Amino acid sequence: MSKNTDLSLHTIPVELVYRILDFLDELTIFSACRNVCARLNTITNTYHRYQRLSTVYLGGNQVGIEKVKHLCNVLRHNKTIVNLCLQYNQYDSEEAKCISSVLLHDQIIVTLQFHNNNIGPQGTEYLSNALLKNTTLTTLNLANNYIGDEGAGHLSKLLVENKTLTTLDLRLNQIILQGAQYLADGLSENETLRILHLSRNNIGDQGVKYLSNALIHNKTLTTLGLEGIQLSDQGAEYIVNVLLQNRTLMTLRLRENRVSAQKAERLIDALMDIETPFALYLDYNQIDNDGKRYIKNALQRNSRIKITL
């Protein structure tokens, strides 16, 4: 007579657990099979698909705060996830607070895609405070999050003290003059950031002046996005001064502004002696055909410069 054997997570053979995991998608393995019990954690740690899992993508799922809390509980024991993608979820400051609690201690995650949410200045403060202690995150995307000037102020402190972040995306965030000044103050002391996107924030010419003063001394930023920021010829002249003195910047995005042909020619002339590749985006400005001809002819004198008109 055969004996009945009760199977549980404590007794089920490892090979059988592997077979079950084979039928689950990777996100389910990460979010539902972790922290159930110590033995299941041990088994999933050795499961080949979990070991290769490096990205959690929850973009556009609009999961609520309780599921975010569950995700954060799992992430606190994270050993594989390096990319966290939580964009387009209508998250506010409460969800940002949860993610910040993970970043405060996590030493694995390098990329946080948190754009197109609604974290505001309060959520930005939570994230900034966490990243003052975090030493692994290199890319932070907060585009379209309504952070405003107050949020930019929190990020300014981060730029001064954080030594890891290399990419910061703040496009479409209702940042205006005061916020530009805050960020410029941070950039003037920052030694690690390489890419900064500020496009579609109405910082105007005065905001560009603040940034330009910082960039004259900054030695690390290589890419700056200033598309659709209400830039006119006055602000473009501040940028000319940067190009004459800064030899670190390699990509400058000035699309969709109000730069004239005459000032565009000044920008090109400032780049003529550059000895490294440089990409300048000037399309959708106020550059007439004569100005475009001048620029195209000027580019023949330095093949390292690439211009879009």
Automatic annotation (TrEMBL):
Record-linked SMART domains: LRR_RI
A Pfam family hit: LRR_6
Coiled coil: none
Gene3D superfamilies xref list: Ribonuclease Inhibitor
Domain spans labelled F-box: 6-53
Cross-referenced PANTHER family: F-BOX DOMAIN-CONTAINING PROTEIN-RELATED, LEUCINE RICH REPEAT FAMILY PROTEIN
Name the UniProt record assigns to this protein: F-box domain-containing protein
Organism: Adineta ricciae (Rotifer)
Organism placement in taxonomy: Eukaryota, Metazoa, Spiralia, Gnathifera, Rotifera
